[in-house]
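User: Can you fold this complex?
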Amino acid sequence: QSALTQPASVSGSPGQSITISCTGTSSDVGSYNLVSWYQQHPGKAPKLMIYEVSKRPSGVSNRFSGSKSGNTASLTISGLQAEDEADYYCCSYAGSSPVFGGGTKLTVL
Amino acid sequence: QVQLVQSGAEVKKPGSSVKVSCKASGGTFSSYAISWVRQAPGQGLEWMGRIIPILGIANYAQKFQGRVTITADKSTSTAYMELSSLRSEDTAVYYCARDLGGIAARYAFDIWGQGTMVTVSS
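Assistant: Here's the predicted assembly.
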């Protein structure tokens, strides 16, 4: 299985909204609603932000939302805040095991 | 709230093996799948495999088949990941992570260990 494709970097100003895409194939993102998103700050373990495409775990801000269309999943962060600056990874079930995206570095300008 | 606490950093020679532990405290252990995910320096996340302790069933990513063994000890609420035939490319931080779906894997990892740095160097 190949890694899911994410943009290497995205940026936005405080208060703005940004969207990170995660492109897979009909064998992973396109076939299963088992897409999750993780936030990782430097030197820290990843944190689950979205699961099953669009569900938010308890305690995660409603500024984070997820969606999927065809073979592409998306993470949208609205009302950007300085603490949102981090790496973001998508993950999808791919039939026998999960596969991660390469990661996107979000810079808050 | 469940916490996952991993064993400490390791330095290994090429060709040797490493065994990393992941101890759960503060909640149910056996009825949740525990996965192992690694991250090479400056790189992304890579799923290695998982175990469901209550069933004792493990499955592995194809890339690691034959080289990784994941086990669990229900009596101590501890999961283990052993990687053999180590090479320099195995230098990474290794994480254990709980699947929030319980036995029915949702491949959504809601609780993570703090990570264990494994360095492979001659």
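The mean pLDDT of chain B is 95. Chain B touches chain A through 22 residues (CB under 8 Å).
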